[in-house]
Design a protein that fits this description.
The longest helix is centred in the middle third of the chain and has 17 residues. By secondary structure, this protein is an alpha+beta fold. Helices cover about 30% and strands about 30% of the residues. Strand 9 and strand 10 form a beta hairpin. It is built from 9 helices and 14 strands. The chain has 2 domains: about 90 residues, 3-Layer(aba) Sandwich (Aminopeptidase); about 150 residues, Gcn5-related N-acetyltransferase (GNAT) (Aminopeptidase), CATH 3.40.630.30. The strands form 2 sheets. Strands 1-2-3-4-14-5-12 form a 7-stranded mixed beta sheet. Strands 7-8-9-10-11-6-13 form a 7-stranded mixed beta sheet.
Amino acid sequence: MTSPGVDAEPGGSVGSTIRFGLVPWDTDIFGFPVAEIAELSLPPGTDGATALGPFLAWCATHEVRLAVCRLDHDRLHESMALEEAGFRFIESVHAPRFELDRPVDPPDRTLRVRRARPGDLEALQAIAASAFTTGRYLVDWRLPPELNHRRYAAWVGNAIRSSDQVVLVAEDDDTLVGFFIVERRPDGTEYWHLTAVAPSMQGRGYGLRLWRTMLSRAREEGAGSVETTISAHNLPVMSLYARLGFGFAATRMTFHRIFPERPILVPSA
């Protein structure tokens, strides 16, 4: 998903930087205001509650229920400041990357890949609503699981209508195997936003076949590399990327803050 626009705000102490704003995407889907800290840099020794005071006040004004921040793995001072301000660590994420100047092992049987059509939307949303079981919105027990399923289903619909992202459907004969949401970036990188094998097709070897098909396709279309982001909780997919020869960049840490500190009830659709 592309990053939401954020409103620049001053930090709460000298030498600190904090940029934050509402996330329109999740706010619309969840039915309550969701905010993101897009940039956080704090001098050593900074008190977290003081530094994040303006942000917390802004959240109160905008009736934010969920705030999210993602930091590089070595930003331990900022991570402790977030915890002092009521944030909780939720997950680590990895950024696998494959340079396409290397050989790509062909799949043992190529799947047919085509661009999704409007008539595919219902089936693709059903896959998206059930295939992702390790995301941060499921790991965080304070959030109802329905929000996770609703978010991924909406993602597919938005991507089909997007001018930047392309939804690609994979089929074995006439059977829907899975889908990829991809974006070709200005530097020649193909970014895989969302990738899924239909739950009914899992455990049958389609993962390796589909990923190899997509790597071959990216190379044939002139991409210089492929990148994606995966949760450290998703061990089977991490193993798949390692088997394919992806390199793993440094991890990032994800934090959530719930306002107030109680479980969120799922709003009606």
